[in-house]
Amino acid sequence: MTGGQPPFAVQRVVFLALLGGMAAFALVVAMVLQGNGGRGLAETPIEMLDIAAVGIGATNAVLAFVLRAILHGRIAAHPPQQQATARFAATLVPIAVLEGGCMLALTAWMLNGAPFPNALVAGVLFAVAVTITPFRDPDRSDPA
Length: 144
Known about the structure:
Layout: H1 8-35, H2 47-73, H3 83-112, H4 118-132
Helix pairs in contact: 1-3, 1-4, 2-3, 2-4, 3-4
């Protein structure tokens, strides 16, 4: 471990835990709704929640890409021994932003019961998070 940075195997566990949390909550929501006959848990659907989930989800997606670009752009400015830590943060922060939007959309789905637009928003944010998650150590030069 250099510069207080966790090894890539630990970083990968953190990234996968974030992804797993989103996937597990989606599964729980789907099971709760199935057990409730497809009806949401709110007495009446909260229409504003659908609008908020879409708006916040879109904002979080854009924010995640902007933050990722800014943070990745600043990696070279760090001393070489701190670049791996900066790269970790440049990946972790956008995934956390995406997770927030995903969890909001899943909660809206659970309350309102209708998968559109909430499950769709959650699915898109989850897919973006998976896409930006590194599964190979970017600091290793060998392809294996």
